[in-house]
Task: structure prediction
Amino acid sequence: QVQLVESGGGSVQTGGSLALSCAASGVIISTYSVCLAWFRQAPGKEREGVAAIGGDGVTGYEDSVKGRFTVSKDNANNTLYLQMSSLRPEDTAMYYCAASLRRADCRWYARQLNQAGFNYWGQGTQVTVSS
Result:
């Protein structure tokens, strides 16, 4: 059974940094076919993909976070990370890590990830950026 547990959220002022972690179990994240991603959902808005990384380490980002967020993974510890810097109030959201067992779900279509392809989700961690 795949389980994902996020940690590292919190509150920060505009321009600050935060790092999120997602510990995975029941799946080997170094597997080529595994796609891991971070999504976020702000109050009153739809959930959106933020960043994704394939088993081969190839990454992709939503346009508004490019150059500010970095997704990475530690295969030895089976952990996914999201390093966030230059945070803005519009980054305020609940952040979720998710896993798909299909490499194709790491592709971006019309600047979005295929959320339906991600069968496994963490419980979420709150990120709040104040101005």
About this structure: The chain has a mean pLDDT of 96. The first strand starts at residue 3 and ends at 7.
